[in-house]
Design a protein that fits this description.
It is a single chain. The chain has about 170 residues and is an alpha+beta fold. Helices cover about 40% and strands about 20% of the residues. Strands 2-3-1-4 form a four-stranded antiparallel beta sheet. Helix 2 packs across helix 3 and helix 3 packs across helix 4.
Length: about 170
């Protein structure tokens, strides 16, 4: 029991390293926990502990720390079509000036599921999930294009979603 407690404390110290830019850098055990949860987000902590060599309590602490640090989220992923959202689109946005205020404004819109600042043809890409085409038009025309700094948008309407997975592991 004492050796498990010491191993758990040592693992806790290792799992809290940060990279040079201040973002958390999980150790191998934390990465293994993440992979276990990517396979099954409802997997019991005891089963995860057995797979990664930690106690249930140590796994619970690590999972909470990973959640608190924003390293991962545990969510239910739905098929938008089955819950009433008939239109999805990726919107490429070009901005004049600072990208941050536009990106920040997009993150507050409930229809916007994904925002990334990019290098290339667009300054920002935003994935939008809407009830129908009228809803999509309203979001793009009256809300996104109305943001200060937005110069232009280009919409890529999803005709059929062939693959959506969050199983890339931790490589």
């Amino acid at each position: 029991m004492h050796s498990e407690l010491v191993a758990s404390r040592n693992a806790e110290q290792r799992d809290s390293r940060e990279s040079r830019n201040g973002t958390p850098h999980p150790d191998a055990v934390s990465l293994a926990i993440i992979e276990q949860l990517q396979e099954d987000g409802r997997r019991p902590y005891a089963a995860i502990g057995k797979a990664v060599g930690l106690s249930e309590a140590a796994v619970r602490q690590r999972v909470q720390k990973l959640l608190d640090q924003g390293v991962m989220q545990i969510v239910a992923v739905t098929d938008p079509l089955t819950v009433g959202f008939r239109r999805q689109a990726m919107v490429g946005i070009n901005v004049e000036g600072d990208l941050e205020p536009v990106a920040d404004a997009l993150t507050t819109m409930p229809e916007v599921e994904y925002v990334v600042m990019t290098a290339g043809s667009f300054d920002i890409l935003a994935e939008i999930v809407c009830e129908d085409d009228d809803h999509l038009l309203d979001v793009i025309n009256k809300r996104i294009r109305a943001l200060s700094g937005v110069r232009s948008t280009e919409s890529f309407v999803y005709l059929k979603l062939k693959k959506q997975t969050y199983m890339w592991g931790t490589r």
